[in-house]
Structures are given as structure tokens and as C-alpha cells.
């Protein structure tokens, strides 16, 4: 906020807007604001003038010479008589008329009591002077500003209730099938809630995903046509492949993996295996009397 020669404006010295894209309302309190001070209101703002808790006027775009209850005493005389400070404190509140983006997030539970993370992005704006009055009347200031985070905190319970009404009775894998109904429910609840504060709701987007990363991947694998057990096998195979394990393909098809010779009667990859060769003693004469009998392999097992 810049206050030079009793000119009140929401522009900073470098020309940028003090409200920006995150601030919905900005309060300016200065004892030098008296009758005759020039109030500048930008095209994307409303301005409310208050004194001792009472609303004196609401201004739209333009520049105005303030007329306040100290009118009988000219502003310069007031400042001189009271040593440079006015005995009355006036509040100038700028209201942002631009569309602002708000994000709310939280946790809902599905029919199986699985945790689902949701994110709701929506645009809001103040449309009329009456709506600006509703905002400063019903929304308290936490300091000198009301920002989009405060709006998200207020709207959070309304959004959570609207989402849980549908999510809590829906199985986790079927939640996205009801996303349109969830969006309409959230929009209706949120519009009614924000209207109390004079805030108009515009576009809205809802995203709901399993909170656990593993569950998200398993559901994605089922979405491409795999059965639940196949999805688990392929998830395991993907994790094994990331570790560089050569047995990852076996995990995917649900078959055992052997190092070296295979065991008798076992199959690998669904195909038949040769039986392990039998141990057959050597029937020839021993080479020397001091040596033990030699056992030879015979492929035919005889």
C-alpha cells in the first residue's frame, strides 16, 4: 500500500498490485486518512470505507475525494490541531474482483474404508458491491488480509461432506465412475456455502485417487483388464524389475524360477521339462585299488 500526500491506492511503489492473485481483501488503517484524502480504486477492485466499525461507503472503479464525519474540520486543520494525527481511525478495505484460484484437499474413505485423497480446484470472485459488504461482514480478518488459503480453510468442511456422501457408499474401484455426480454435489454445496460470504463460485474440478501409491498402481493394472491376482503378480514383477532381478518375468506369469538344472517333475513357463538324469554306478573295473568307485551320469537314466 502506498500513501503519499493523502492519496490512498492499492498499488505499490513499483506499480504492482498489493492484492495480487492470492489476496481477496486488504485492510489499510492510517490516522492520516481524513476528509479530502483521495481514494483510488482500480478496475479490478471494490473499496469499502469504514469508521469505528460502521460502513461509510462502498466505491467502484475511479478516484474519489473522501467525505467523512470529520467534514466540519478540514483535514489539514485536523492534522495540525491534533499534532499530525486524526482522533478518528478510518479503515480502507480493498476487495479483489478478479477470479482467484482456490485449492482444497483432504481425505475421504471408500465403502471398504480405504483412504482416498481428493483435491478440489475452483475459481471464485466478488461480483457486486453488496457481495463485497457480505464478505467483510461475515468473513473475519486474521490480520490485515483475507487470502485464498483462508477461503479454503472455511470451505473445507463443506467440500468434505459433499464428497463423503458419495464416496463412503462406493467401492474404491468404482469411484471414478461417479466423478460427475461427486462434482455436481460439491458444486451445489460449495456454492451455497460461499454465497453467505458474498463469494460467487465459477469453474470447479474434482480429483479423487487412492491415498496409498500401491493401491493406485494395482487399480491401474486392473483397469487394463488384469484380474486381481494378475495385477498383484505384475505389480510384484515391476518392482523386481526395478531392482534388476532376472526372475521378474517368472513373477509376472506366476511360475517358479530355478538357478542351474531344473528339478524333476517341475515345469517352467508352462512347458515340459526334461527329468533330472539318474545317478548310475560305473560297472567297469576300478582304475586303482586305492580309488573309490566312480559314479557316472547316464542321460537315459538306466
Question: How would you describe the overall organization of this protein?
Answer:
- The chain is an alpha+beta fold and about 300 residues long.
- It folds into three domains: about 100 residues, no CATH class; about 110 residues, 2-Layer Sandwich (Tetrahydropterin Synthase, Chain A), CATH 3.30.479.30; about 40 residues, no CATH class.
- About 30% of the residues lie in helices and about 30% in strands.
- The strands form four sheets. It has a five-stranded antiparallel β-sheet with strand order 6-5-8-3-11. Strands 1-2-4-7 form a four-stranded mixed β-sheet, with no helix packed on it.
- Helix 3 packs across helix 4 and helix 5 crosses helix 6.
- The protein is elongated.
Write the SSE topology.
Layout lengths: L1 E3 L2 E3 L13 E8 L7 E4 L3 E7 L2 E6 L2 E4 L9 H7 L8 E7 L3 E10 L5 E11 L3 H10 L6 E3 H20 L11 H17 L4 E11 L2 H11 L4 H15 L5 H6 L24 E4 L13 E4 L4
Parallel strand pairs: 2-4
Antiparallel strand pairs: 1-2, 3-8, 3-11, 4-7, 5-6, 5-8, 9-10, 10-12, 13-14
Helix pairs in contact: 3-4, 5-6
Number of domains: 3
Q: How large is the radius of gyration?
A: 37 Å
Count of runs of 4 or more consecutive helical residues? 7
User: What coarse outline follows from CA principal-axis ratios?
Assistant: elongated
- CATH homologous superfamily assignment of the largest domain: Band 7 domain
Query: What is the CATH-assigned architecture of the largest domain?
Result: 2-Layer Sandwich
Q: Give the spatial strand order of the biggest sheet.
A: 6-5-8-3-11
Mind describing the biggest β-sheet? 5 strands, antiparallel
Would you give the CATH topology of the largest domain?
Tetrahydropterin Synthase, Chain A
Element order, helices and strands?
A: EEEEEEEHEEEHEHHEHHHEE
The multimeric state of the shown protein is single chain
| Portion in strands | 25-35%
How far apart are the termini?
A: 100 Å
Q: What level of helicity do the residues show?
A: 25-40%
Average pLDDT taken over every residue: 81
Structure class: alpha+beta
Number of strands: 14
Name of the top-level CATH class of the largest domain: Alpha Beta
- Low-pLDDT parts are 1-5, 71-75, 264-270, 272-280
